[in-house]
UniProtKB/TrEMBL annotation:
Keywords: ATP-binding, Nucleotide-binding, Transport. SUPFAM superfamilies: P-loop containing nucleoside triphosphate hydrolases (SSF52540). Residues 10-243 form the ABC transporter domain. InterPro entries: AAA+_ATPase, ABC_transporter-like_ATP-bd, ABC_transporter-like_CS, ABC_transporter_ATP-bind, P-loop_NTPase. One of its GO terms (molecular function) is ATP binding. PANTHER family: ALIPHATIC SULFONATES IMPORT ATP-BINDING PROTEIN SSUB (PTHR42788:SF13), TAURINE IMPORT ATP-BINDING PROTEIN-RELATED (PTHR42788). This is ABC transporter ATP-binding protein.
Length: 260
């Protein structure tokens, strides 16, 4: 895969995952390999329960692979985590309810021992990036779900990782908010220059946002195909009627529908 900056920010090579349960073993991921170029936006789609999240969690050092190799900027996930080379955005924002929006964003910097002024400056810089500079003193329960997820994105960017792993971050939002958040994410990505790995159930969302879409098979999941999205940037709502958008969504749908 090619990207804006070239080189592989993430490399997944022959990765498999088997879970041991009280009833036996479940083979969830079967010999998956792909590269994600630095600066690119890559989505993973596949049938429900196929193992998309398992792949993302292995890259994010939340699960160990049973076999194979994962490298982030040339390092293992555990080393990359220690070096703060990636951030992880979950399906729900998981904000601390008694902390302000600003103090939720700077929470990782508390752990890293940043000074009060440096935390304040970095937090406000990120709130401006995600369009929430006027809500710094609000609590999470005083802002909308979409705004909460923007806070979670800002928090993941707080220590300036090169890679952002996003596991269905808009799945709990209504369709109007989800659409708006997609374009907000593209703006943040363009301004920050990060590499993004984005897990989603939505074919249309994946095509509209991505440089490449990785189509995964049913469990045990394997990579069916990497589809190049040949649409110029910046992406707009009008791209949904572009023949290239329609062709890409149809190609991906035909791969996935037999297993729906």
């Amino acid at each position: 895969m090619t990207g804006k900056s070239g080189g592989a920010a993430v490399r997944v090579k022959d990765v498999s995952k088997t879970f041991t349960t009280p009833t036996g073993q479940t083979h969830a991921v079967d010999s998956v390999s792909f590269d994600i170029a630095a600066g690119s936006f890559v989505s993973i789609i596949g049938p429900s329960g196929c193992g998309k999240t398992t792949v993302a969690r292995m890259i994010g050092d939340l699960l160990p692979p049973t076999s194979g190799e994962i490298l982030i900027d040339g390092e293992s996930p555990s080393m990359a985590r220690a070096g703060r080379k990636f951030g992880f955005v979950f399906q729900r924002p998981t904000l601390v309810e008694w902390r302000s929006v600003l103090r939720n964003v700077t929470l990782p910097l508390d752990v890293l021992g940043w000074s009060k002024q440096d935390k304040e400056d970095r937090g406000r810089e990120l709130l401006k990036l995600v369009g929430l500079e006027d809500f710094a003193d609000h609590r999470p329960d005083q802002i909308s779900g979409g705004m909460q997820q923007r806070v979670a994105i800002a928090r993941a960017l707080s220590y300036d990782p090169g890679v952002l792993i996003m596991d269905e971050p808009f799945g709990a939002l209504d369709m109007i908010t989800r659409d708006r958040m997609g374009f907000e994410l593209l703006r943040i990505w363009a301004e920050s220059g990060k590499t993004i790995l984005f897990v989603t159930h939505s074919i249309e969302e994946a095509v509209l946002l991505s440089d490449h879409v990785l189509s995964m098979s049913p469990r045990p999941t394997s990579l069916q195909k990497s589809v190049l999205i040949d649409l110029e940037r910046p992406r707009t709502v009008q791209h949904r009627t572009d023949s290239r958008f329609i062709a890409a969504t149809q190609e991906l749908r035909e791969m996935l529908e037999p297993h729906a």
